[in-house]
Amino acid sequence: MTGVLKGLLLLSLCLVVWTVPIDRNQDPPQEEKAEENVDTGLYYDRYLREVIEVLETDPHFREKLQNANTDDIKNGRLSKELDLVGHHVRTRLDELKRQEVSRLRMLLRAKLDSTNAQSVQMDHASLLKQFEHLDPHNQNTFEAKDLELLIATATKDLENYDAERHEEFKRYEMLKEHERREYLKSLDQEKREKEEKRIEELKEKHRQHPKVNAPGSVDQLREVWKETDGLDPQEFNPKTFFKLHDTNGDGVLDEQELEALFTKELEKVYDPKNEEDDMMEMEEERLRMREHVMQSVDLNHDRLVSLEEFLKSTEKKEFNNPKEWETLDDTKPVYTEEELLRFETELRDKEVELGRRAEKLRQEQELLKERSKALEAQKREYQQAVMEMSQKQKEQQAVNRQPPSGPNGELQFQQEIQKLAKEDSQVVKVPVDQNGEVQNNLPAEPPQNLPQHTS
C-alpha cells in the first residue's frame, strides 16, 4: 500500500505507542515492510487492511481514491464507486466479508460460553449488530454499505484513540501514586521520612534538564535539521525539511513521521537508564507534542500534514516566537484528588471481589481434596475386601479337598499327581488273566511218583 492509505481510513497514522528515531545513515526500509509494523489498534484491523489491499488492485477505484479528498471519503461518496470495480475484486471482497462474519461469530460464541449463557438458539444476525464495521443483515456479499460502514467506523475509532491513550496514562499515574502511598504507609516514621526525601530528590533531578523547544517551532525543527539530518541550521529550508521527513514519499506527514521529529527533544528530559525518568511519561509527552502540532498545522483536520499546510505554519508568528514548552512536570497533574480517591475505591472493590473468588476457589479445592481422600479410602476398603474374599476362597477349597487354583484360575494338579504316584509305588500288583482270575505265577512242584525210565 502506498499513498492510497492517506485517503482511505487514515491508515497511514501511527497508532503504536513506541516510535524510534530516524537514522539517516541507513537505507530507508521498503514500503511494504514498513507498513507491516503499523497497527491501527482496531479489533478489525486485519479485515480493514485486506479490504484496502483488494481495492487497490482495481485501477479504476485506485484512481478515484487518489483523487478523492477527505470529505469524499467520510461522507460515503467514494463507496458508490464500488459498483464499478472488476468482478474478481468483488468476489474477493465477498470472501473477505464471509471470513470476517465467521470470525465474529466465533468471538460471540466464545463470549457467550465464557459467561455460561444459553446460546443454543443463538440469533447471529441480531448479535452481529453490535459490530458497526459491516452490514449484519447481508452476511455473504460485500456491498457499498459495507465500505461506507467500514470507513465511518474506522474514522470514529481512530479519532477516539488519543483520548483512550490519555485515559490509560491517567490510570497508570494514579496506580503509581496509589502504590507509592501504600508503600509509605507500611514504613515506620523514620524510614518513611527517608523515603519521602529520596523521592523528592529524584523528582528534582528529573526537572534538571536542558530547555525543551516548543514542538513545531523553528528552533525545534532546526535542531532536527542539524542533529538528525546533519545539515547547517543557518541553511534551514522548510520545503526541503518536509521532503526529508516524508519518509514514505506519499506527500504528507502522518502522525508516525511527526512523532519521530520530537525524539531529540524527548531525549533531553527522559533517559531509560535513569531511575527518575519514566518511559510511560515520555510517550505521553510525545503524544502531547504531536497534538500540539496538529492543532496549529492540520487545517482540514484529516490528521495529516500536507506540504501546503506545513509551509503555511512556518509563516505564523508562533513558528518564530513560540511560547516556552511546558513538560508534564510543569503542568498540573493529569488527575485530581477526587479521581484518585474514586480510583482507589475501585481498586479496593476489585480486591474484595478477587478475594471472594479466591476464597471460593480455595473452598472448592478443599472440597475436592476431601472427595479425593474419601475415594482413596473407598479404594483401600475395596482392595481389603477383595483380599479377604480371596483368602476365604482358598480356605474353603482346602476344606473341600479341592485342588487349588492358580493365579489365572486354572486348576493345579501337579502336587496331587505326585502324591498318588508315590502311593501307587508302594502297592503289590497281582496279575490276572483274561477272565479276571488271579494268575499264579509260582512254579509248579514236580510230580512225586513218576515212573523211572530204565535203559
TrEMBL record:
<keyword id="KW-0472">Membrane</keyword>
<keyword id="KW-0677">Repeat</keyword>
<protein>
    <recommendedName>
        <fullName>Nucleobindin-1</fullName>
    </recommendedName>
</protein>
<feature type="region of interest" description="Disordered">
    <location>
        <begin position="379"/>
        <end position="455"/>
    </location>
</feature>
<dbReference type="InterPro" id="IPR002048">
    <property type="entry name" value="EF_hand_dom"/>
</dbReference>
<dbReference type="InterPro" id="IPR011992">
    <property type="entry name" value="EF-hand-dom_pair"/>
</dbReference>
<keyword id="KW-0175">Coiled coil</keyword>
<feature type="signal peptide">
    <location>
        <begin position="1"/>
        <end position="19"/>
    </location>
</feature>
<dbReference type="InterPro" id="IPR040250">
    <property type="entry name" value="Nucleobindin"/>
</dbReference>
<keyword id="KW-0597">Phosphoprotein</keyword>
<keyword id="KW-0333">Golgi apparatus</keyword>
<comment type="subunit">
    <text>Interacts (via GBA motif) with guanine nucleotide-binding protein G(i) alpha subunits GNAI1, GNAI2 and GNAI3 with higher affinity for GNAI1 and GNAI3 than for GNAI2. Preferentially interacts with inactive rather than active GNAI3. Interaction with GNAI3 is inhibited when NUCB1 binds calcium, probably due to a conformational change which renders the GBA motif inaccessible.</text>
</comment>
<keyword id="KW-0963">Cytoplasm</keyword>
<dbReference type="Pfam" id="PF13499">
    <property type="entry name" value="EF-hand_7"/>
</dbReference>
<keyword id="KW-0964">Secreted</keyword>
<keyword id="KW-0106">Calcium</keyword>
<dbReference type="Pfam" id="PF25434">
    <property type="entry name" value="NUCB1_N"/>
</dbReference>
<keyword id="KW-0732">Signal</keyword>
<dbReference type="InterPro" id="IPR018247">
    <property type="entry name" value="EF_Hand_1_Ca_BS"/>
</dbReference>
<feature type="domain" description="EF-hand">
    <location>
        <begin position="233"/>
        <end position="268"/>
    </location>
</feature>
<keyword id="KW-0479">Metal-binding</keyword>
<keyword id="KW-0238">DNA-binding</keyword>
<comment type="function">
    <text>Major calcium-binding protein of the Golgi which may have a role in calcium homeostasis. Acts as a non-receptor guanine nucleotide exchange factor which binds to and activates alpha subunits of guanine nucleotide-binding proteins (G proteins).</text>
</comment>
<feature type="coiled-coil region">
    <location>
        <begin position="144"/>
        <end position="205"/>
    </location>
</feature>
<comment type="similarity">
    <text>Belongs to the nucleobindin family.</text>
</comment>
<keyword id="KW-0344">Guanine-nucleotide releasing factor</keyword>
<dbReference type="InterPro" id="IPR057576">
    <property type="entry name" value="NUCB1_N"/>
</dbReference>
